[in-house]
Structures are given as structure tokens and as C-alpha cells.
């Protein structure tokens, strides 16, 4: 996927319109989800809760509950900008801290329109993160996860890019659920402070004080049994249907 750079950002970069503030402005430019190979671009799929998430800043908590026996994948991609209005988005970098758990994948990359500089192989660099999140577990690649667990790496040309540049981040899990089991996924994106322990991603701007911290977790649990009252209502409904059928039969 190729995107277009915005002329205002390029002009700001050329003119050097950079300013340092005590609190950076964070904006969410784009986002996407992939649930079991179904890709949702700039949309929230069923089963994903964003009530605790600000779609303007891209900060907050996203949760999802996945059910169904068998193999699954859940992935999310976020393209944030830090102080883009005053210093363009092309001076940002990112890194990973800690070690991901089994089944967890991630990536930090230029979001897909191409860098203004060549990569380590000496050819134009185009980030592949968007393609990777879009095509993981897709019908064309069932069971395959393409997030590469690297920072600024282009698999197609086997090259890396030395930041700063534009940054986007993705995180995902592939997992298997047993009969009667469900998975609860929580994504946390914040600027206040890094998580205490665990694995997380960081996005930073070289002239701004704030950083974006992206962490997540997956927990498995048994699917709760229906409440007794629900079972009683269901049983009463079946009895009622049986009574109606008997009356029709004897009429």
C-alpha cells in the first residue's frame, strides 16, 4: 500500500518550523485491526471495545474477547504523530523494551509510503508494516503472521532504515483456544510513563518531551456458564413452545 505525504508536513520540515513545548501534541493518523484474518482499516470490528480509547489522540485502552475452539490471531496497528504540526512526522523513531511472550509478535516501521532516504541495501525504503498486519492470517496466507519483530526492516529488499523517520507500531498474538476457553486481549497506549516491567513498544520524537508507550496482554479463561436465572428462563421458553405445539396438534 502506498500513501501520500502531505505537502504541509514537507513544507514545515523544509522551513524548519520546529518548536519545543512542555507537553507534546499526540494525534492518531490511522489505525487498523486484524481478527482471524479479517482486516478492518480505520474501523472497529465486532468484539473489540474502544470505549476507553480516544480515537483522536490514539491513547487509552482497547480490549477484545475472542472465542471459538481452534487457532486465532488478533493484531492491531496504530500510526501516531507527535507534534506533527510544528516539526513534521519525519523525525521520529521507536524501539522495543523487554521480551515478547510466546505467540506475541510486533513491528515498528515506516507506515508504508516510503522514506526520503534509501535503506541499508541502497534502494528506496518502503515500510511493510501495513502489508504485514493486513495479510496476517488472511485467506491467502492462512495461519501465517508477518509482523517481523524488528524496527525499520523491509523484508522485500532485505534492508533496514536508520531513523529518524515516520513511525507506526503494531502488535499481535496468534494462539489456540481449547473447548470452552476464551481469550481476553488488552492494549494500552499512553504517554504518562512506561509500563513497569513486561514487553512494550516506544515511539519518540527527537524534539518533543513526550513518548508513546504501547503494551498489551492476552489472558485465557473458561467461558462462564450461564446464570441459573437465564437457564430457568430458557427452560420456561421451551415449555411454552411445547404447550403451543400441543394445542395446535389437538385443535
SSE layout:
Blueprint: H1 7-15, E1 26-35, E2 38-41, E3 48-54, E4 59-67, E5 70-82, H2 84-87, E6 92-97, E7 104-109, H3 129-135, E8 153-154, E9 159-160, E10 168-177, E11 181-190, E12 200-205, E13 211-222, H4 228-250
Antiparallel strand pairs: 1-2, 1-5, 3-4, 4-11, 5-10, 6-12, 7-10, 8-9, 11-13, 12-13
So what's the overall shape?
globular
Query: What is the number of helical segments per DSSP (H or I, 4+ residues)?
Result: 4
Question: How much strand content do the residues show?
Answer: 35-45%
Largest sheet: 6 strands, antiparallel
Low-confidence stretches: 1-21
Kindly report the average pLDDT value: 86
Number of strands: 13
In N-to-C order, the SSE pattern is HEEEEEHEEHEEEEEEH
User: How are the strands of the largest sheet arranged?
Assistant: 3-4-11-13-12-6
Overall structural class, as computed from helix and strand content, comes to alpha+beta
Taking all Cα atoms into account, the compactness measure Rg is 23 Å
Ends apart, CA distance between termini: 66 Å
Proportion of residues in helical segments: 10-25%
**How many domains make up the 3D coordinates?**
1
Report on the structure:
The protein is α+β, with helices and mostly antiparallel strands and 251 residues long. The protein has one domain (7-226). Helix content is 17%, strand content 39%. The protein is built from four helices and 13 strands. It has helices at 7-15, 84-87, 129-135, 228-250, and strands at 26-35, 38-41, 48-54, 59-67, 70-82, 92-97, 104-109, 153-154, 159-160, 168-177, 181-190, 200-205, 211-222. The strands form three sheets. The protein has a six-stranded antiparallel beta sheet with strand order 3-4-11-13-12-6, with no helix packed on it. The chain has a five-stranded antiparallel beta sheet with strand order 2-1-5-10-7, with helices on one face. Strand 8 and strand 9 form a beta hairpin. The radius of gyration is 23 Å and the shape is globular. The termini are far apart. Residues 1-21 have low confidence and may be disordered.
Amino acid at each position: 500500500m502506498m500513501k501520500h505525504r502531505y505537502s504541509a508536513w514537507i513544507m514545515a520540515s523544509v522551513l524548519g518550523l520546529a518548536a519545543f513545548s512542555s507537553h507534546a501534541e499526540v494525534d492518531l493518523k490511522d489505525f487498523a485491526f486484524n481478527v482471524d484474518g479479517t482486516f478492518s482499516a480505520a474501523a472497529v470490528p465486532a468484539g473489540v471495545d474502544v470505549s476507553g480509547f480516544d480515537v483522536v489522540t490514539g491513547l487509552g485502552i482497547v480490549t477484545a474477547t475472542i472465542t471459538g475452539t481452534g487457532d486465532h490471531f488478533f493484531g492491531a496497528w496504530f500510526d501516531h504523530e507527535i507534534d506533527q504540526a510544528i516539526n513534521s512526522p519525519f523525525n521520529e523513531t521507536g524501539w522495543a523494551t523487554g521480551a515478547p511472550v510466546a505467540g506475541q509478535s510486533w513491528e515498528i516501521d515506516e507506515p508504508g509510503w516510503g522514506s526520503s532516504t534509501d535503506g541499508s541495501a541502497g534502494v528506496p525504503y518502503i515500510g511493510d508494516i501495513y502489508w504485514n498486519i493486513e495479510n496476517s492470517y488472511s485467506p491467502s496466507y492462512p495461519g501465517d503472521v508477518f509482523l517481523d519483530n524488528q524496527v525499520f526492516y523491509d523484508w522485500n529488499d532485505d534492508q533496514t532504515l536508520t531513523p529518524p523517520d515516520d513511525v507506526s507500531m503494531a502488535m499481535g498474538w496468534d494462539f489456540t483456544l481449547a473447548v470452552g476457553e476464551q481469550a481476553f486481549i488488552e492494549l494500552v497506549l499512553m504517554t504518562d510513563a512506561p509500563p513497569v516491567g513486561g514487553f512494550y513498544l516506544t515511539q519518540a520524537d527527537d524534539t518533543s518531551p513526550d513518548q508513546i508507550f504501547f503494551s498489551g496482554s492476552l489472558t485465557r479463561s473458561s467461558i462462564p456458564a450461564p446464570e441459573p436465572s437465564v437457564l430457568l428462563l430458557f427452560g420456561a421458553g421451551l415449555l411454552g413452545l411445547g404447550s403451543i405445539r400441543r394445542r395446535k396438534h389437538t385443535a
